[in-house]
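Query form — protein nicotinamidase

QUESTION: What is the three-dimensional structure of this chain?
INPUT:
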Amino acid sequence: MNALLIIDVQNDFCPGGALPVPKGDRIIPNVNRLAAAFDLVVATKDWHPAGHISFADSHPGTAVFDTIQVHGIEQTLWPVHCVQATTGAGLHPQLQLQHLNLILHKGTSSNLDSYSAFFENDGTTATGLEHYLKGLGVQEVYLCGLAEDVCVFHSAVDAHNCGFRTTVIQDATAAVDTPKGLAERTRSERSALGIHHSTTEQVLKSIGTAR
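ANSWER: The structure tokens for nicotinamidase are given below.
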């Protein structure tokens, strides 16, 4: 069984949001086409409490995109984004919600960030997604969403490490690429692990053939 993971297609990560991915909203038509083709679709949302540890405003004397150590974990500092129950935390209005089987909230703890859909940034606190998917017999996951070089990257690596055959759909994701070169570096790291890359058309064809 296959599953589609739609990572963080939220208002704050799209143009006009607090932490926009350049042209991030342009992937949504492909995401919707993919979601309609899968039997199991999971969407994730950053769902941060006010004053979250990842916000630069929570650390006086720091600036956005600084990197600090918090409880022994390297933490990049971001603008205030995806605060629980705000418009910015909502899924983008163009995303077709009728295809979603589950919406998973991550980054809900005040003192721990979460890039991956599978584990918090301490690398051990599970979100429950691995067991949910394996309990349904999923063996292969496809990833799309935002941002390619942050949350999609970490989710893909963890999916691979959890034993899923893992594919990132390149034209259904978009990168921050900050600092410059991050997007290419993370693509190389994914490939070195054996994570696959594909396109929307290729995935739709393969899913249709499998059926």
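ADDITIONAL NOTE: The first strand starts at residue 2 and ends at 7.
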